[in-house]
């Protein structure tokens, strides 16, 4: 059961980022579930029919599948995706937006910017 009926999936290989985002999401009144690898998240999505997040917060650079590779596998789901990254790569914003992301946030970002972005992403739900 999720708070307010909203579940946010957080996919980031940095455990401290996952913990911080889980706390932040909970402070907004939403439930969350964190995953340390893109493959782990995709396996849960495919295997558990009751697991349907309302939004995915997805790290760009992870071991195994990158955030962009995970996004490509989510394209058929219409799940809103917020990418997060600590890297400043030329053309990255354009690349993730073309892949269907709602937004790209560069770490570190403020709680207010994250909340505003999360609300915008939730407005994109099917």
Explain this structure to me?
The chain has helices at residues 15-27, 38-47, 67-74, 92-98, 111-123, and strands at residues 7-11, 31-35, 55-59, 81-85, 103-106. It has 126 residues and is an alpha/beta fold. The protein has a single domain (3-123), classed as 3-Layer(aba) Sandwich (Rossmann fold). The chain has a 5-stranded parallel beta sheet with strand order 2-1-3-4-5, sandwiched between helices. The protein is globular, with a radius of gyration of 13 Å.
List the helices and strands and how they pair.
Layout: E1 7-11, H1 15-27, E2 31-35, H2 38-47, E3 55-59, H3 67-74, E4 81-85, H4 92-98, E5 103-106, H5 111-123
Parallel strand pairs: 1-2, 1-3, 3-4, 4-5
Q: What would the principal axes of the Cα set say about the shape?
A: globular
The span between the termini is 20 Å
Q: Write down the CATH topology.
A: Rossmann fold
Kindly state the mean pLDDT as a whole number? 91
The proportion of residues forming helix, as a percent range, comes to: 40-55%
* CATH homology-level superfamily: Response regulator
CATH architecture: 3-Layer(aba) Sandwich
The CATH C-level class name? Alpha Beta
Strand order of the largest sheet: 2-1-3-4-5
Give the total of beta strands: 5
- Major sheet: size, sense and barrel closure? 5 strands, parallel
Low-confidence stretches: none
Radius of gyration, in Å, reads 13 Å
Give helix and strand order, one letter per element, not per position: EHEHEHEHEH
Structural class: alpha/beta
Percent of residues in beta strands: 15-25%
């Amino acid at each position: 059961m999720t708070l307010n009926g909203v579940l946010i999936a957080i996919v980031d290989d940095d455990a401290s980022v996952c913990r911080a985002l889980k706390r932040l999401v909970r402070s907004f009144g939403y439930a969350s579930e964190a995953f340390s690898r893109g493959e782990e998240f995709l396996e849960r999505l495919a295997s558990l029919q009751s697991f349907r997040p309302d939004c995915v917060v997805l790290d760009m650079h992870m071991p195994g599948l990158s955030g962009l590779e995970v996004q490509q596998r989510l394209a058929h789901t219409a799940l809103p995706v917020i990418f997060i990254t600590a890297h400043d790569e030329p053309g990255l914003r354009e690349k993730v937006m073309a892949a269907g992301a709602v937004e790209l946030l560069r770490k570190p970002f403020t709680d207010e910017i994250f909340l505003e972005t999360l609300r915008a992403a939730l407005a994109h739900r099917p």
